[in-house]
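Trying the structure run again after the queue cleared.
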Amino acid sequence: MEQELTQLLRELAAQLGTTTEYLWAVLIKQALLEGLKSFVFVAVTVGVLLSIKPAWGRLKWDDYGELEDKQNSSLTWAIVASVAGLFMSIGLIFAIQTAIDALMNPEYWALKEILYLI
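Done. Tokens:
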């Protein structure tokens, strides 16, 4: 396995016109950037998820079950936040894993990226 990985790194470095050491260093730096990017995505997603309940709580209903806000701006925000929260929650699962892998062990992340090429 190690020989195959070394050979793959050499071939990839040769195609890119660089050395394997430089390529590995770039992958390690990229791991940290990917981890930070995933961490920012996690923070934004948590912010959106935390805004869903207050968005629905701002809606005012009259005695007949209809919205008092005739412009429905609060309802629009509540629906948009809910839909965005749903899609972002799915991505949150993968972003947390990437953030942990890339920030805590960048060599492992770089190795996974190389093995993905095989």
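The chain has one domain: 2-117. Worth checking whether this holds up in the mutant runs.
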